[in-house]
Amino acid sequence: MQGSIAVSQDPAVQYLLRIGDSALILAQRLGEWTGHAPVLEEDIALANMALDLVGQARAVLTHAGVLEGQGHDEDQLAFLREERDYRNVTLVELPRGDFAVTVLRNAMVATFYRLLWERLRESSDAELAAIAGKAVKEARYHQQHSADWVVRLGQGTDESLRRLRAALDQLWRYGAELFADDAIDEHAAATGLGPRWGDLGEAWEAEMDALLADAGLELPKSTPFVSTGKRGVHSEHMGFILAEMQHLQRSFPGGVW
Amino acid sequence: MSARPDRVGKAWQVLGTVLDPEVPALSVCDLGIVRDVIDHGAELEVVLTPTYSGCPATEVIEESVLGALQAEGLGPARATLRRAPAWTTDWISDEGRRKLHDYGIAPPGPALPDGTAPIRLVRRQPPIACPRCGSSHTERLSAFGSTACKAMYRCIDCREPFEYFKPL
Are A126 and B84 inside 8 Å of each other by CB? Predict the structure, then answer.
């Protein structure tokens, strides 16, 4: 079996891993819907959004490997790390849940990514800025599409509203982690690599507030709870995702399509 | 090896015959993803800009481009990736738009300038004309189609479904 790689703790590399890993793990969750979505159109939509996210993750992880300078490529970074070395936010690793959980999480994450990619177009790192220039357009479609569904479920039947409300109760508390800054954010802001994620919080909440109002829901109260995935401390769900994701590369080292 | 006369011009001609694997009505030049062809003497460099981050056709396109140049004796050639500026559907040529239409895919409208796209919920989109009968009496069936770059529509007048190449 292929052993794990050790990843640099360099703050710029860590900042990129947070971006790439959150896209990668959400893509894995969305991929679970392939062949199982409630209608064919959404099956295709979820798979297409997963594909965009995988593409973004590939570009960002490849670049993280270059900055790291230890010769790690996208596949090694995606498949050969230990759980604590993944830097995705906890929100994206939660089980896919029902369709309401899926579309609400997509709306929360796509809104965040759209705001982040917009800012990253101005990154002092030319490659990251170039990746962002493409990704922001994709995130815009993802946000539009998932927000449409949030409104549709909110204004749909009693059952769809009940499910959306349950999804909000479950997911909302995980949003706080996105905006909990630390030394990685400070370093990125100081070097011009990218914004402190916390700087996006106000705009994110305003857009989510408008969306939830359209759907007939209120913004839940904030709680002291802050999840810790982007610091490598994950929920109990993460190990299961990695077991599935890593199986092939661990069993057949260096295998490619 | 010295530069061959008009190697670049011939290369552009050859590239005009390399079709996109997912939208085989269009050549890679119609699509606007070939950004530059540079003759370095020893080898020819083709600069490509990917359409979507996750587009699975990117690698196939690279292989077809290099294969076609080799076959015409214009090689050795290599492909390089240029991410910035990001590809936009505005780069699809007029010829490309006509080919899309004839192929039954409604060509994309203008892409919104970066950063100014209003995110409106359940937005009303301008009507998309049916590529078969020209009617604007159409409706969207699905935001995503057979590939990420297209949406599914149906014409309410002639009853035919069709694809719309989304502005990006």
Answer: yes
